[in-house]
Amino acid sequence: MKFLLEVTMDEGALAEDPTGELQRILRYWGGNLKHYALRPGDGSPIHDSAYQEVGRWSIADQAG
What we know:
single chain, alpha+beta, 31% helix, elongated
């Protein structure tokens, strides 16, 4: 399996403070992952501090 995290950094709060916003996102999702089984197909949208959707995390099967 793979844990995938994709965040667009060229707009909004991430463009203004990329380091601070990424730290916040990683802290939040690091603590929130306990609510998921972490199986292929699990995932959720990611929002910045202004509650704008900026990406997604997901669990995927590793091909091959």
